[in-house]
Amino acid sequence: MATTLDPIAEFREDHRKVRDGILAISEALTKKDIAKAREILGVLNELTGPHFRYEEENLYPALRKYLGEYVDQLYKEHDNVIETAKVCVSLLAKDSLTDKESQDATNAAMQMLIHVSNCDGLAILSERFTAKEMDALSTSFATSRKAGVPLLDWADTIRKNK
Ligand SMILES: [Fe+2]
Description:
The chain is an all-alpha fold. The chain contains 7 helices and no strands. Bound molecules: fe (ii) ion. Fe (ii) ion (FE2) is lined by residues 15, 51, 55, 119. The site of fe (ii) ion has 4 residues, from helix 2.
């Protein structure tokens, strides 16, 4: 029997990984280790693609019954995170950063950290889903992970075409 994914536990576990990754990026930037920061950002791009996709395609629609129109803001918040991630990628593509660029990249990382903190709050509402809804979320989260489209690829293709 295939093991089913626990949508809340996995959702929160992703957040822990992203939190730690972002903090590690900030630390690498402090040490002027751009290669390290770039490498971690690459890992986060892979990890957050399926997570964001699952949220937008399945979790957010399901949360409408609790949050109503506020859900629209969650999508907008993702627009901002995606833009911030792009800024971060372009800065970290450089071989060296000025102090200003390094500060910009650190600020971008902090913006993403704030989003992680906000997003994790959705878990408290998700706990109230019915078993049937939870099963549906479990399946869709697993499907999104299996597809494995990185965040910025997804944002520029599948997400844009919706
Ligand atoms: Fe999230």
